[in-house]
Amino acid sequence: MSGIDEPLLSRGxxxxxxxxxxxxxxxxxxASAGGLYLSEGTTGFLRLVWLCGLPAEFxxxxxxxxxxxxxxxxxxxxxxxxxxxxxxxxxxxxxxxxAAVLPYPFALAALPVTGMRxxxxxxVLMWPADRPRRLTARERHNITTGARRFARxxxxxxxxxxxxxxxxxxxxxxxxxPAQTDLAASDYVERLPEGAVSLxxxxxxxxLSTAAARLLGRGAERLLxxxxxxxxxxxxxxxxxxxxxxxxxxxxxxxxxxxxxxxQWLVFxxxxxxxxxxxxxxxxxxxxxxxxxxxxARRPAPAPTGRLYQxxxxxxxxxxxxxxxxxVELIAxxxxxAFQAQGLVLSAADAGRLTITGHHGYDPDxxxxxxxxxxDTDLTPAGDxxxxxxxxxxxxxxxxxxxxxxxxxxxxxxxxxxxPLVISGRPVGCCVLSYDRPHTFGADExxxxxxxxxxxxxxxxxxxxxxxQHRLVGELQRALLPRALPALPGLDVAAxxxxxxxGLDVGGDFYDVLRLDDTTAAAVIGxxxxxxVTAAAFTGQVRTALHAHAxxxxxxxxxxxxxxxxxxxxxxxLLVSCLYAHIDLARHQVTLSSAGHVPPLLRHAPGxxxxxxxxxxxxxxxxxxxxxxVTTVDLPPGAVLALYTDGLVEAPGTDATRTTRGLAxxxxxxxxxxxxxxxxxxxxxxxxxxQQADDITVLLLRATRTPPV
Length: 709
Known about the structure:
The chain is of the alpha+beta class. Helices cover 34% and strands 26% of the residues. The protein contains 20 helices and 29 strands. The radius of gyration is 33 Å and the shape is elongated.
């Protein structure tokens, strides 16, 4: 073999420089494939802009990812860390949806691409199945160096990267490759009795020997440029396509047998590398013959393996949607691109009408015309489709106009798929996918969309029920908290409540601020054990008891002691923590009493804050005769008292004492006197979490001046 270096990518543009860097990184780390994701910026979505070593169809389900997607690269970008998956079993444990779509042995690393200017996106690298399951320190260094290289390229560029809808493919030898001028290898292959076939990364035949064409039963001119399972009917089976996918992803040899009619069995041996797959084809002598009887009907052609895995991926994704909004976003960002559609209208059947619950790709005035149409409307096929329970596909405007003359006038779309959403004969709604250009729906596409319709129906029904319950729970939660805090001369107040991110449970946090007279006020914060309607009802009783005893003029310790005795009479098994603060604005003092609550913070002045040493009494519900110690501290004008619940400082795997000290340091470092902005600052780390385990409540009180007596 001889040749010269031939450049394939120009490094003049930013996009090509990124592609060349990806090819270099894949080669330099010994990976078999890699992908570069870039952030869309304002939306936070990640878009796959460059792919190396695998065909784009393998990554179709992940070409555009939401920031919270349950996938390694999204976790890496969100957490700012390297995510390593040593094998398929780890992938199945941590990312079951991805494992279902790529059920092959491989290792994977995902890490963020973060520059000096901004977080740019993420990098994904894949290795063959035969590599060790653990990363060495040197390998980790090489991978992170590759990510930093992308960050430097992006930081140093004056032009923005291109975020097109189509992923660009770069071969691993993108920078240089030897020219293929030596014919000796071809002569060598032609002399062998077995057949030789070469497939590119897309599965297309790029070369086959004369013996291979003879064994496959078709001339080379009819096979070159085709995929074997598409060109040869006897290889048209998902099992055979899956062997190709297994070899390509795992980079391991794969062998299988297949029968070429009428009865010759062939052995196929696949040998993959970074540029494609070499296939050896040889006859297998002595294999049992089991031809079907003459006249036996050929079974229907199955859907391509890629489409089947795509259905598995989308089905898994649909099971994870919770709200109607989640469902609309999933259809818009994953299902529409998977079927090359541009528009979506999702309607729910409600009181004889189709109420639009979500849409994408339509102008608001079009949505307004389509909303709340009667089920017996003749404007669109939606009602008839739902009544018949069968999907309707229209390849162009003329086809839909033949049955529904007014339908093409409603929008500028050119093709439609109307999918009825039905559960056990009960109509749930209708999902319409639309296209900006005429679109022919193939048999396998219709089959997959029909299957998806049933899954979307279940997801929509479940999401609507969740949204209804969540709205009711939200109303109950708001009823437990004060609608507004009183205006108190000499005291600025700010409160924040952040519910836990787990389902429909009602939180048990409560707070209140009471004006006692012109110069005194009371503040209370607490947490009822558990998250349930029972806990919510008990929370209301706690608030009522505290309010009654405080406004009756009881001292702080007596407010807690009397409330404890009253709640004990209710015979509840729930425990309650509570912190009560009596504020004397004339004397600039606050008297505190605690029933097992987390200690408050006091910021004396900007730069000076600490944790108050308040001796706690027992939780409500433990000791009927419990006494509650009191602690009095100064609260001069400008000082800020911070009350909060344990959700702010307690989390699995963290030290609550250390977290509390950090919270005090954050309060001290803030030089803003406004308690509203201070509250947001204290909650900022919690808001960044996708899901916190407990409710969080913060109540800030800032003394301003001596009120008039």
